[in-house]
Write a structure and sequence with these properties.
This protein is of the alpha/beta class. The protein has helices at about 5-70, 85-90, 155-175, 185-195, 205-220, 240-245, 255-275, 280-290, 300-305, 340-350, 360-375; strands spanning about 75, 95-105, 115-125, 130-135, 140-145, 150, 180-185, 200, 230-235, 295, 310-320, 325-330, 330-335. The strands form 4 sheets. The protein has a 7-stranded mixed beta sheet with strand order 1-10-7-2-3-4-11, sandwiched between helices. Strands 5-6 form a two-stranded antiparallel sheet.
Length: about 375
């Protein structure tokens, strides 16, 4: 008995260990089954959420494109006839340059023969999302292709609509503009009101001019608003914002200052859009879409709106950078000094091209303007 005792104990120990091992294996199998069931549940949940979200996105996109964007007033532009030179097409391929025109007509659908009060180029870097805005002064002396002569930039729209303004800018500034958005002052008021107003720093010397014309603006766009009492940051409603953008007389600073105010409003609008929730953006689009006229198709508009949160607003400029104005043949013009030099500055500030060399066409027009100045 004493001889077998150690072996008996060993066998029992082995049985105990084996039993524990079997129980452990069983426990591990159950744990793995529970883990697999949990993983499967998680995968199914993610799949269901993804399918539902995708279905919702597709349904909303169809509704947005087919419904809301269908309200946009279409503008016919022949993109093959916009005088984009090969140099601009190649070197600016990473930039979406969109022209924004504010026209002096009450009817957005019938703007034939109207001039452009506001000419702004919104440049979006497709890679970084950086946005830069340039105002082209309305009285600047440029070559207008359809007239085959030089005239004020603001007159290009009267001669040939948005397409002629695009052509004028492309050949005078070496640009690749193919997209345009046209608004009138009534449109601007509606868009601003749909945003809930825009916060702008109103200067003391701007208040008197704003209050002088604010009632007239109300009659033009249809509505009433309050006078501006104090300077500083104020939330401007649609009528107030339009009045702020239009003033240029008295101590308000002329056309150069007016262009700067327009850029400030556009900057404020982009910032406001970036901060909107999906629901707010959806509601805003109901009011904004019928107020504009554009050649940008529905898919492009949707793509721009979906990317709005990644846009980074950087500097804004007025163009031309160096200019001088005087009366020629009884008409006031603003002359670029010189066109070639100003185009070089423009490409440096807007596109970061330190040593840009203008095209032969720009150099040609620059010399013609210089000769005109000498012979005045």
């Amino acid at each position: 008995r004493s001889t077998l005792f150690p072996y008996t104990t060993l066998f029992r120990s082995l049985e105990l260990i084996t039993g524990m091992a079997e129980k452990k294996k069983t426990s591990e199998k159950k744990a793995r089954k529970r883990s697999n069931r949990a993983k499967m549940f998680l995968v199914l949940t993610v799949l269901i959420v993804t399918l539902v979200t995708t279905a919702f996105a597709i349904a909303y996109t169809k509704n947005f494109v087919g419904g809301k964007l269908a309200k946009v007033n279409r503008l016919d532009v022949d993109r093959s006839s916009l005088n984009i030179c090969p140099k601009a097409k190649k070197e600016l391929s990473d930039y979406d340059n969109i022209l924004m025109l504010g026209i002096d007509t009450r009817d957005i659908e019938n703007n034939e023969g109207s001039r452009s009060d506001a000419i702004m180029i919104v440049s979006i870097n497709k890679i970084s999302g950086a946005i830069k805005i340039a105002s082209v002064y309305r009285d600047v002396y440029l070559y207008i292709p359809v007239e085959e002569r030089f005239d004020k930039a603001t007159h290009a729209h009267a001669y040939g609509g948005a397409q002629e303004t695009m052509r004028m800018l492309n050949i005078n500034l070496d640009l690749n503009i193919e997209k345009v958005i046209v608004v009138n002052w009534g449109s601007v008021a509606k868009v601003v009101d749909a945003m809930g107003g825009l916060s702008v720093d109103v200067k003391k010397n701007e208040i008197d001019e704003m209050n002088r014309y604010i009632n007239d603006t109300g009659r033009t766009v249809g509505g009433k608003t309050d006078m501006i009492e104090n300077p500083g940051y104020r939330k401007l409603d649609g009528i107030q914002a339009v009045t702020y953008a239009r003033i240029r007389k008295g101590e308000s600073g002329g056309d150069t200052a007016r262009a700067k105010r327009m850029r400030k409003l556009l900057n404020a609008a982009v910032k406001k859009l970036k901060g909107m929730s999906f629901r707010e953006l959806d509601q805003w689009s109901d009011e904004a879409m019928p107020a504009i006229k554009t050649d940008i198709d529905s898919k492009e508009i949707l793509s721009l709106l979906l990317k709005v949160t990644r846009y980074d607003i950087q500097n804004s400029i007025g163009w031309p950078n160096k200019h001088d104005g005087w009366i020629m043949e009884g008409v006031w013009y603003d002359f670029p000094m010189t066109l070639e030099r100003n185009v070089m500055i423009f490409h440096k500030k807007m596109f970061g091209r330190e040593s840009y060399r203008p095209s032969g066409m720009v150099k040609k027009y620059s010399k013609q303007i210089e000769e005109k100045i000498k012979g005045r």
